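FAQ: What does a ligand-bound record look like?

Like this one, built around fe (ii) ion:
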Amino acid sequence: MKLTTSVLLCLVAIFISLPSGAQKPSIEHGPWITNVTETGFTVVWTTAEKTFTWLELAPDDGTALSACKRPRFYNTISGRRQAGTVHRIDVTGLEPGRGYRYRIYGKIVTDDSSAYGTAYGPESRMTTATVKTFSQESEKCSFVMVNDIHGKDETFKALTQDIVPGSIDFFLMNGDMVSYINDRKFFLQHVYDPAAELLASTPLVYARGNHETRGSEAHFFGQYNPTSTDEPYFIFRHGPVAFIVIDAGEDKPDSSPEYSGYADFETYRKSQLEWIKTATKCPEFSNAPLKVAIMHIPALKEKSSYFAQLWVNEHFLPALNDAGIDLMLSGHHHDHIYIQSGQCGNKFPILANDDTDRLEFEASSNGYTISTVDTEGRITSVYNQNGKVSQDE
Ligand SMILES: [Fe+2]
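The answer part, i.e. the structure of the complex:
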């Protein structure tokens, strides 16, 4: 049938006249996967409009997703399902070290003014991706880390574009991914969009840097990055490696004029210190053959060190020494710094990655290998548990 101009105009008019709720929902940012454990994970994404969403789960076993009724998971608070623009769905009851496919569905809320009847737009499938749970039984553990990107999308893309989703166990952002969070949209756009495909199917571990504590909307950081402790510090385990993610907070004294009275990191660090002493004693952590501390600000001590760095060197470092940490990975300095064991009270090496490199880590129960790689894909340094490895070897 040949459509005349008048018929086409009529169709366009009908489409424009539809209420916004008649549109299908679409994802604005994400999804990304956080808080991965042996038995679950959390999927986070945002939509522009208030949307009722859910997630369907299936093992990654080659069966058709529509082969049978798949379990559904919702964003719930105390038993009530939530609609909104930020979607956080906890998936639970899984098996360790197993691959799963998840599908996100939603429908836009067009009218929820009545407590006894909500009107929705059409239901739509929003995306499908895969993810694998962690397992202590895994023989290896691998991840890629970036840090100090400060909103530079091109650097972020150059450092991540050749990482094959599913080829690593998780992706680690070690702080200062943006310079401040004055605007959540800016934060979402520069943290989760540049590597969107990777983050949809690779667990994300996000260690907060001092810059993520800045700005009028900085307190929303946790909303987008749920953890097992509901704080930016937490522990997790995969294969032979136990990880402790620590947060040094702001780098200068809380009384610094640029914080405008908002900073209370001295109290925060003190309570975190007590948590470190307890958390590192749990068997999941203490029994691990290899223990890695992740902290944006390295716990080193030098003449140019700011207040927080000196504080964590004096207080966090002895607790981490007692916990038997084997390695600390950091950023913050926009430079490549390797501090050998014993240089500043540390009983383990501290490696601060440059802002122009990604850090590739792989470990087995026999030890670990680290390579740093620049934006051109060139290896810039190699380390193992014995120290720096000559690249001529
Ligand atoms: Fe920093």
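Follow-up question: can I read anything off the structure? Yes, for example: Residues 9-18 have pLDDT under 50 and may be disordered.
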